From TrEMBL:
The keyword Ligase applies. It catalyses: L-glutamine + H2O = L-glutamate + NH4(+); hydrogencarbonate + L-glutamine + 2 ATP + H2O = carbamoyl phosphate + L-glutamate + 2 ADP + phosphate + 2 H(+). The keyword Protein biosynthesis does not apply. Pfam families: CPSase_sm_chain (PF00988), GATase (PF00117). It comes from Neolewinella lacunae. This is Carbamoyl phosphate synthase small chain. InterPro entries: Anth_synth/Amidotransfase (IPR050472), CarbamoylP_synth_ssu (IPR006274), CarbamoylP_synth_ssu_N (IPR002474), CarbP_synth_ssu_N_sf (IPR036480), Class_I_gatase-like (IPR029062), CPSase_GATase1 (IPR035686), GATASE (IPR017926).
Length: 370
């Protein structure tokens, strides 16, 4: 079976020619790459990828099929897929559908049979930029016209597109701990980690007020991962400041970490091309131990600003590849956060201890409930 052709045009004019994968159509977004050797379905459905074209550096995508459970949200969130071998026949006894049926069913446009190593080198050299994939338009002027209309990721608020429309609860109302989650685009495995640790969880829409959240009588507060530029999310920063005022244990992951940093006056910045993969080494500066982490972010928190505000923020984790900030603790508050993903999915479980650390903090602070 021969696949129809497809094209990828980047904002700097570079083109790559390949074959159509998934739905025939046209899609746009900021291009990024993930170096994970496994876990493509978890990555496709991670809401933090909303608005991004994903290059997978693993040479084979689709070879173990797809299921209805290996998902981090209810649908595919990447804006487009760019891969090398798009393998439709699959081999895994639990798989339910081929990658082609899955992508077509979800309406995702992709391109395969392109030199993903060359694309990654290009992004690593030139930095993140917008791109357009099409398997129906091949006129470069028309593709460029459409690409020019795509907004820059820098300054984009995207959590509103992926947060829950209504608050909902999960787990046993009589569980030992009550955790309120500010949903900026949460991955399911974060919620599963709370449920596994005897928590009753209430997930709140991104623009919920602190009053709404506190009405749940939470023992712990959590700010989730999510897509877009943390610098464009003043509403969430205000909520995080209100959460800090409660003196309750507060934990943030990725976008939640960036929002917590902003809440204590530390700005964020756009990285050259971000960190996305499942083998990023991080050092815990408190214990001296290193851990291999799952990552997915294109923004970071400013090390220069932290250096000038050490009375307010303590650095707890550093990236061993490039020394970027990977974790902080707010001085004088029971609040901490990490830039990476202790929930993994996909990725190693080295950092799962951070969920235990949050529960321990809750135990210390747990108020007697009426
Ligand atoms: N995984 C995340 O929460 C990503 C946070 C943010 N959107 C970034 O790209 O840095």
């Amino acid at each position: 079976m021969s696949q129809p052709r497809a094209i990828l045009l980047l904002a700097d004019g570079t083109t790559f020619h390949g074959k159509a994968a998934g739905k025939i159509g046209t899609t746009t977004g900021e291009i990024c790459f993930n170096t994970g050797m496994t876990g493509y379905q978890e990555v496709f459905t991670d809401p933090s990828y909303y608005g991004q074209l994903l290059v997978t550096t693993n040479a084979h995508i689709g070879n173990y099929g797809t299921t209805s459970v290996d998902t981090e949200s209810g649908s595919i969130k990447i804006a487009g897929l760019i891969c090398k071998n798009f393998t439709v026949p699959y081999s895994r006894h639990l798989a339910e559908a081929s990658i082609q049926d899955y992508l077509e069913g979800e309406g995702l446009v992709g391109i395969s049979d392109v030199d993903t190593r060359a694309i990654v080198r290009h992004i690593r050299t030139r930095g993140a930029m917008n791109g357009i994939i099409s398997s129906e338009i091949f006129d470069l002027a028309e593709l460029k016209r459409r690409l020019d209309a795509v907004p820059n990721m820098d300054g984009l608020e995207l959590s509103s597109f992926v947060t829950t429309p209504e608050a909902y609860t999960l787990g046993n109302p009589d569980a030992t701990y009550r955790v309120a989650v500010l949903d900026l685009g949460t991955k399911q495995n974060i919620l599963r980690n709370f449920l596994k640790r005897d928590c009753y969880v209430k997930v709140f829409p991104a623009k919920s007020s602190v009053e709404d959240i506190m009405a749940f009588l939470p023992d712990g507060l959590f700010i989730s991962n999510g897509p877009g530029d943390p610098g464009a999310m003043d509403y969430a920063v205000t909520t995080a400041q209100g959460m800090l005022d409660q003196e309750k244990p507060l934990f943030g992951i990725c976008l939640g970490h960036q929002i917590l940093a902003r809440a204590v006056g530390i700005p964020t910045y756009k990285m050259h091309h971000g960190h996305r993969g499942i083998n990023h080494p991080v050092k815990n500066l408190i214990t001296g131990k290193s851990e291999i982490t799952s990552q997915n972010h294109g923004f970071g928190v400013s090390p220069e600003a932290i250096a000038q505000n050490l009375d307010r923020v303590e650095i707890t984790h550093r990236n061993l590849n490039d020394d970027t900030i990977e974790g902080i603790r707010v001085v004088g508050k029971p609040a901490f956060s990490v830039q990476y993903h202790p929930e993994a999915s996909p990725g190693p479980h080295d950092a799962a201890y951070l969920f235990d650390q949050f529960i321990d903090l809750i135990k210390e602070h747990q108020a007697v409930r009426a």
